[in-house]
């Protein structure tokens, strides 16, 4: 905090926090600032068959009208195509959730070529499609947000361990792109990283500066790797 564009300290500069743990599990989300530095420092992505790439995800939560006949709790809908052109990698999701909520979002790959493309405007335009507009009619948007998403998939997952730490969740790119979901994978990989540390610690072995290849093996043999590979 407090660094200008030239890397010089401003009056508002605050030093970073020293991380003194013997092992640190980094779960910063997609393209985390520390995670990306660690990948470069230790060459964690050097052996990956594919490079990681990213998308922007926009989401709104709607409270639908009580008498809306098109609301179906439990229904999951996905779309591709309109309003984006064929050369833009994109898709939307809509989850009908009890008691009367719609979770609606659009994901657009950040490799689009048109510099005038506005993801937010495309998201709003998508809601005018007749099949979607009838679900929003009479409703109210009660929350919204946006975030960067990993889209590299199975072949872009880097080496997960290095001396003194590990990568988990979206810091390592565990989003299931086809299902547009990754919370379950983030939770599971965090658990596997913690288990690797715990198991070695309980054996009385030193864990400081150790590079946990055991975590990599746990991932390779888990349903997370199997799901991403599919």
From TrEMBL:
<dbReference type="InterPro" id="IPR040156">
    <property type="entry name" value="ETF-QO"/>
</dbReference>
<dbReference type="InterPro" id="IPR049398">
    <property type="entry name" value="ETF-QO/FixC_UQ-bd"/>
</dbReference>
<keyword id="KW-0274">FAD</keyword>
<dbReference type="GO" id="GO:0051539">
    <property type="term" value="F:4 iron, 4 sulfur cluster binding"/>
</dbReference>
<keyword id="KW-0830">Ubiquinone</keyword>
<dbReference type="GO" id="GO:0046872">
    <property type="term" value="F:metal ion binding"/>
</dbReference>
<keyword id="KW-0249">Electron transport</keyword>
<keyword id="KW-0285">Flavoprotein</keyword>
<comment type="function">
    <text>Accepts electrons from ETF and reduces ubiquinone.</text>
</comment>
<dbReference type="Pfam" id="PF21162">
    <property type="entry name" value="ETFQO_UQ-bd"/>
</dbReference>
<keyword id="KW-0411">Iron-sulfur</keyword>
<dbReference type="InterPro" id="IPR036188">
    <property type="entry name" value="FAD/NAD-bd_sf"/>
</dbReference>
<keyword id="KW-0813">Transport</keyword>
<dbReference type="GO" id="GO:0004174">
    <property type="term" value="F:electron-transferring-flavoprotein dehydrogenase activity"/>
</dbReference>
<protein>
    <recommendedName>
        <fullName>Electron transfer flavoprotein-ubiquinone oxidoreductase</fullName>
        <ecNumber>1.5.5.1</ecNumber>
    </recommendedName>
</protein>
<keyword id="KW-0560">Oxidoreductase</keyword>
<keyword id="KW-0479">Metal-binding</keyword>
<keyword id="KW-0408">Iron</keyword>
<feature type="domain" description="ETF-QO/FixC ubiquinone-binding">
    <location>
        <begin position="54"/>
        <end position="149"/>
    </location>
</feature>
């Amino acid at each position: 905090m407090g660094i200008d564009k030239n890397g010089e300290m401003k009056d508002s500069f605050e030093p970073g926090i020293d991380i003194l743990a013997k092992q640190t599990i980094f779960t910063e989300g997609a393209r985390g600032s520390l995670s990306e530095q660690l990948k470069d420092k230790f060459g964690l992505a050097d052996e990956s068959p594919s490079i990681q790439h990213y998308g922007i995800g926009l989401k709104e939560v709607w409270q639908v009208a009580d008498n809306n006949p098109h609301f179906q709790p439990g229904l999951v809908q996905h779309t591709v195509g309109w309003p984006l052109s064929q050369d833009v990698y994109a898709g939307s999701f809509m989850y009908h959730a009890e008691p009367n909520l719609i979770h609606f979002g659009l994901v657009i790959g950040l490799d689009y070529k048109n510099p005038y493309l506005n993801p937010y405007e495309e998201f709003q335009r998508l809601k005018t499609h007749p099949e979607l507009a009838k679900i929003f009619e009479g409703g109210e948007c009660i929350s919204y947000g946006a975030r960067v998403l990993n889209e590299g998939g199975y072949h872009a997952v880097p080496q997960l361990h290095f001396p003194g730490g590990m990568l988990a969740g979206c810091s390592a790119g565990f989003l299931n792109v086809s299902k547009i979901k990754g919370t379950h994978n983030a939770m599971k990989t965090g658990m596997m990283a913690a288990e690797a540390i715990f198991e070695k610690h309980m054996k009385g072995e030193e864990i400081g500066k150790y590079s946990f290849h055991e975590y990599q093996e746990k991932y390779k043999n888990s349903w997370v790797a199997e799901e991403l590979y599919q």
